[in-house]
Amino acid sequence: MTNKIALVVYPQFSMQEIATLSGLFRWYFDSPTVVFSKDLKPVLSEEGIQVLPEKTYDAFRVADYDCLILPGCSDFRESIGDEALMRFLRQFKQHPGFVIGAICAGPIYLARAGLLEDRKFTSSLFVEMIERFSFIQAENMVYAPIVEEGNILTATGDAYREFAIAMARKLGYQCSDRAYAGVPFDWKPETYKHNLNPEGMAQFVEAYGAYLR
């Protein structure tokens, strides 16, 4: 594996829904997130946080990444008509084995790009949207938190932790059901005592020696 994941951002994307995934991949599997958009201008998330994309769609190369992630979006009136995004996504028809994950409203972009034709999927879209959008095959919508079919894995917005775990496993990583599960009910002081190994201790002393006792 290349140990890199590609994240697409568009106006009003949900940072919260993919933050757990990016954190899990970075700290469990040393796989950083590379942020893509149609240009390099700041993109405002639905939480009001500006994100600066690292690369444009034109710079994407399938061989350089393990998977593509599409976050949800609280207002997709602008991005659903973004032809640059649609052209970017349509290229994946030529790469049927490349893993793609989409959460919450993210699957709407896959549907419009033709990547969900004759595929089961889930999403957090309203029923009326699923039934009325001409490019969505409503009969293939599954009302479940996670749906995996072929190279595409979709999830509802409230399944952001399960989405991260499912994506890791789809890529062949060993990942516990308890990953990013939060504070355990039966916590003890020892749960929060973390010790450096010898290599980590040496790096710590080298980096912060001027400040140590």
Short description:
Helix content is 26%, strand content 15%.
Sum up the structure in keywords.
alpha/beta; seven-stranded mixed sheet; Rossmann fold
Please, could you describe this protein's structure?
The structure is a single chain. Strand 3 and strand 4 (50-51) form a beta hairpin. This protein has one domain (5-183): Rossmann fold. Helix 1 (16-29) packs across helix 5. The radius of gyration is 19 Å and the shape is globular. The protein is built from six helices and nine strands, in the order βαβββββαβααββαα. It is of the alpha/beta class. The protein has a seven-stranded mixed sheet with strand order 5-2-1-6-7-9-8. A two-stranded antiparallel ribbon has the order 3-4. Helix content is 26%, strand content 15%.
